[in-house]
Structures are given as structure tokens and as C-alpha cells.
Amino acid sequence: xxxxxxxxxxxxxVLAIAVGFFLYAGQIxxxxxxxxxxTYWASFRSVEGVSVGxxxxxxxxxxxxxxxxxxxxxxxxxxxxxxxxxxxxxxxxSAVIIASEGLxxxxxxxxxxGGSPFNLEPGAEIEDTQSSIxxxxxxxxxxxxxxxxx
Length: 150
Fold this sequence. Notes:
By secondary structure, the chain is an alpha/beta fold.
């Protein structure tokens, strides 16, 4: 009888630790089932360093994530769909850029709100975009330049 009690207590302890782990992981990744969000999209020349799940930030605060990236065969641009918390209202003239956390850091999508009194409708395109800048290409231009400013 004592053996069965020990097994039940051990099983309950393992289950409690697993539930705690999943709750902690949900907080760290920003996943919460109750928060509602709106989807917007933007077209970029290059989405280097960005993938599905990448953070979308406003003033350094995570407000969403990239949900899909597709190549538009007509324009050869990357159509990027991302979610933004419903509590965030974006002005019509907002911009979206792909920024870097530092020289060796990862990339994220940054929202730059405009000054328009009118807000974007959910599902709308944000037309003002700035693609990621390739650090390798910048270094190659610096290394291969011959120094002539003529």
C-alpha cells in the first residue's frame, strides 16, 4: 500500500513540475491564450534575419510576432504577416522596419507609429517599410573600397 502512495505522490509532483514549466515557458515566449491580436502585413525587399515567430516591438516592448512570410511572385518581395496586440492602435502613416539588436544580435520587427489621426484597419498593409541591412554586405563594401573619393 505504501508503494502505491509513493508512486501517486511522485507522479503528482512530476505533473506539477511539468505544468509549472509550461506556464513559465508561455510567459517567456509571450504566448498567452487569452490575449487577442490583430493581423497586419507589409512587403519587404529583404527579410534577412527574420522568421516566423520573430518579435514585433513598439518602443522596445514586444507587442506581437511574425505569423507568416511568403514570396510574392509578381513583385519578388517578401510579404510578411504579423500579429499586434488588439490594445495597440496603429496610425495610418505608421512605418515598419527590420532592426537589429546589435552587431552580433538577432533581428526583430519594429513598429514606428505615425502622427495620423486615423488608425489602420485590422488586416491592412503597412506601406512604409525598411528592409534589413546585411552586415556582411556593408563590411564587403568597406573592405573592397579603394579609398578614392573622387
